[in-house]
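Fold it.
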Amino acid sequence: MNIFSKIAAGLKKTKDSMMGKLESLMNSFTKIDEEFFEELEELLITCDIGVETSLDICGELRKKVKEKGITDPAQIKTELKEIIIEMLGEDKGIDTSAKPAVILVIGVNGAGKTTTIGKLAARYKNEGKSVLVAAADTFRAAAIEQLEVWTERAGVDIVKHAEGSDPASVVFDAVTAAKARGTDVLICDTAGRLHNKKNLMDELKKISRIVHQQAEGCSLETLLVLDSTTGQNAVNQAKLFSEAAEITGIVLTKLDGTAKGGIIISIHRELGIPVKLVGVGEKLDDLQDFHAKDFADALFETETDFEYNYERLTDGEKEDIPEEFAEEVTEEIHETEEAVTEIAEETETTPEAEEIVPEAEEESVTEAEETAEAEEEVQEKKDLKNGKFGFLFKEISFGKKKKEDTDTEE
């Protein structure tokens, strides 16, 4: 599965929810008026895009509709997609240009912070970079052990202190070690803290100051990990966390398990913080770089891929249809087509045939029915050969082949 397919699969619930409502709305209106825009605003808000962002989107859409003279509601999808891409802005990846590139990972417990660190460490290790992880989540029970498991899987080193130690001192030692070793990437875990707990947020400010002091001149990222399933609450978290630390990017996790992916648009528009990574699954490579165009394409995509449908119908099997059986079906189709042609020629009406006796009428009706049935049979066999019923086709072919093999053995 390529990167776009992963994003599309991860956004399926969001797409089904949002696009389903949008299609229903467009089908309910024959023209674009103020009532249409009011309904659209409400729709966007229910899709977790947020009140302010929804109003902004509809405001931009009003301008485009007026400028281009659009009257058909069905034509607004393209304009809506362009507005969303524009709002998401330019794609921004994680900066690892200067050594050591320090990545401070923050967020509340349960958002997927430790998992994100493990996946990031594995990614940079696979890219050939040297990676060091700092276990500065010293308050949560077994947090250090959990991070050790991830670092072992990724094959990277870890800096840790005893449980209950000062988190800021762990980060200080880790930055010092990274600079001394010439490490490419340093990823710092922090205590999962609630955004409404003052003492924990003050600790985060302290860590942030130390990183800025010790890593001067190095690439520095502060990534906030948010759980996309929390919807607008994640946006509120981002607002409060940004007061304690200079957040440079958002990691949005669990995108594949929610229909609230619209918060990506809200985060960009209301906070001006770019979403840099999205989690679309549990595998190591399911942490993907965020691209605005891919997001919009996956959200507004409507065409269904035939190969995907065929896989689903056949439970993942993609075996070729036996050539000998395909040839037999083709011969049968030709024979049936010839029979239909003969019946059609015999039942052709002539001027003299308009005055016929009742018995002849009955015969003509019967022949017409036979012609219709024969045409249906031809179409069914063509459908069969074209693969629309591939799963049935294979069952028949396999049964026929098995019988022929048995007869040969006897």
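The longest helix spans residues 358-386.
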